[in-house]
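Example 5.3 — Gibberellin 2-beta-dioxygenase 8
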Amino acid sequence: MSFESYPPPFRQQSHVVHSDDSSKTLQDFDLIPTIDLQCLDLDNLHGACKNWGLFRLVNHGIPPTLLNQLQDHAKKLFSIPFETKQTLFTSPFSYFWGTPALSPSGTSLLNSSGNINWVEGLNIPLPHLSQIQSQTLSSFRVLLEEYGNHLARLSRALYEAMAKKLNLDTLESKSNLSESNGSLRVYRYPYYSDEADEAAWGLDVHTDSSVFSILSQDQVGGLEVLNHDQWFNVKPIPNTLIVNIGDMMQAISDDEYKSVKHRVKVNRSRERVSICYFVFPEEGRVIRSSKYKPFTYSDFQAQVQKDIKTLGYKVGLERFRAY
Ligand SMILES: O=C(O)CCC(=O)C(=O)O
Ligand SMILES: [Fe+2]
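Solution (predicted structure tokens):
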């Protein structure tokens, strides 16, 4: 196997490929709620956001062919040489590895602990897609534009349904979500063959800073979600998206909805690709909540960046608690 496409820290000494361990689950029964967008049941959606902060989304109207093409294309892009990837994704896009934490300009914020996450990724702010000039990326760009339109439609529909159950004034709360300004992260998690090393993670435990996030994953698996102090495997199901509540929605909902903790396990034998969309409030929108001091997403993001630089981790919403 050639490691030419891997960032240098992932070019492992040991080339031992282990048998697939993706069946080793923490909880074998699957309790993760499923929401059907075509027959949207508001009570089920509300329950899923309160009790899990995460759900599977089916009948979302995104053609399966588009999801498959995106996955295939992402795999192809990641397989090109590391050095080429570094030159292909330039501002306002970025290519990163070892950590998902990026500065607003897209550079990696490696923390002081020296721990690296077993992941590489592309950061793609959707409003800037038209700036992609490269021939190599032109067909990927077309797919991303189509996908971005679907994601904007899904997020508006989901947000409005949530807002209804939370009794938020529809007009007033509209700008809590800026669905056409979302950003995409396309990830590849290299396989990690060192079975002795339990400390390696694709992504460490975290909450998302978004209003919510929408994930499309391949069939390898590895995403885990925390619920009542237990970790659950979020098993991949074809044509099913995963939606998770982020910090902004937790604040908007006065803590009724949970910005759920999740993490990504490394796989001992297979690479994994996932595509995650993050949607945020409109620029300058002040989030008002009985539980938190008023803040904008920019205030929040600046605090997160500061904490990662100084403490090595994100403190998150607790920084803004009102009491
Ligand atoms: O790749 C995944 O399954 C999850 C990605 C994720 O949690 C994130 O980007 O915040
Ligand atoms: Fe996440």
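Remark. The pocket of 2-oxoglutaric acid (ligand 1) is lined by residues 100, 185, 187, 203, 208, 215, 217, 223, 262, 264, 274, 276 (CB under 6 Å).
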